[in-house]
Amino acid sequence: MADALANEPLALEVKKLTKVFGDRKALDNVSFSLPQGAFLSIFGPNGAGKTTMLRMLSTLARPTSGTIRVMGIDAKEDPDKVRDHIGLISHNSMLYPDLTAMENMMFVARLYGVVDPEARVRELLRAVELDHRRFDSVRTFSRGMTQRLSIARALINDPDVVFLDEPYAGLDPHAVEIFDELIASLREGRTFVMVSHDLQKGFAACTHAMMLARGRVMVCSPKDELDFDEFKGLYRETVGMGVA
Ligand SMILES: Nc1ncnc2c1ncn2[C@@H]1O[C@H](COP(=O)(O)OP(=O)(O)OP(=O)(O)O)[C@@H](O)[C@H]1O
Predict the structure, then answer these.
(1) Residue spans per domain, the chain
(2) Which fold has domain 10-97+159-240?
(3) Which ranges carry the ABC transporter domain (predicted)?
């Protein structure tokens, strides 16, 4: 089957992306593009460069060389404009532990100039089932609750592109369900890029899959053009190469 999204405008356009730390190339000449509405799952062993790539795509880190365009905007020339279009859910929850859930959310809502911030914040807190804990400080939250709040935080600006760095880490089965439902309800018209160690789940969710190893792209393709068993075989081989 042909790639159903092939004619959509591009959400991401990455060309010759390289990141060097000292004498180590964390990413080596990575190029790919992703149409709007796609869900890209990125797999690879520890140290493959997945988080490094996500950090650059979400403007948290600068490439050593290469270019990134997000929704047509050059990330180097106009990182602030890129930030208006993206949301990031990562290990680092970017929440202030001493502030309440409500205070944290209101802070980001104001940062993004959200119109009617209180209504938007309450809507998001309800979506992640945390509205009843809105006056509690984040310090008192469990890992999963913190993760749910960081999901709400990342959606405050109604992003076109959502980056997810191992979003299932630390979630209990109920939170995984809430998360999956939330993502499903958000997929229409939005683009997702998810780093995952869960091959089964990550592959099931995606429209495009990428395998990274030692900073290089081994495979990047629409899922329709991939055979899961072959991809699984490659994953085992790649992970077998050990930590980069
Ligand atoms: N700030 C840094 N300084 C030096 N080296 C770094 C830094 N960040 C990442 N690296 C190196 O870059 C490489 C890629 O790391 P990265 O965190 O992107 O891997 P990953 O694929 O996300 O791994 P994991 O599955 O373990 O999360 C590794 O060799 C790592 O040691």
Answers:
(1) 10-97+159-240
(2) Rossmann fold (3.40.50)
(3) 12-239
Q: Which long-range contacts (CB under 8 A, 24 or more apart) does 172-179 make?
A: 172/144, 175/144, 175/147, 175/148, 178/128, 178/129, 178/148, 179/148, 179/151
Closest Cα to atom 27 of ligand 1:
46
Residue 51 CA: which ligand 1 atom is closest? 22
Q: Which residue, among 134, 185, 190, 143, has the nearest Cα to 166 in the 3D structure?
A: 143
Give, for ligand 1, the residue of 50, 217, 241 to mutate: max count of ligand atoms closer than 8 Å to Cβ. 50
Amino acid 241: pLDDT: 64
Task: Give the rounded distance of the alpha carbon of 17 from its chain centre.
Answer: 18
Kindly state the average pLDDT of the residues 124-133.
Answer: 93
Q: What is the mean pLDDT of the chain?
A: 91
- For the CA of 212, the nearest atom of ligand 1: 21
- Give the model confidence (pLDDT) of 70-122 as tens digits: 999 999 999 999 999 999 988 777 899 999 999 999 999 998 899 999 999 99
Structure tokens at 25: 């190339």
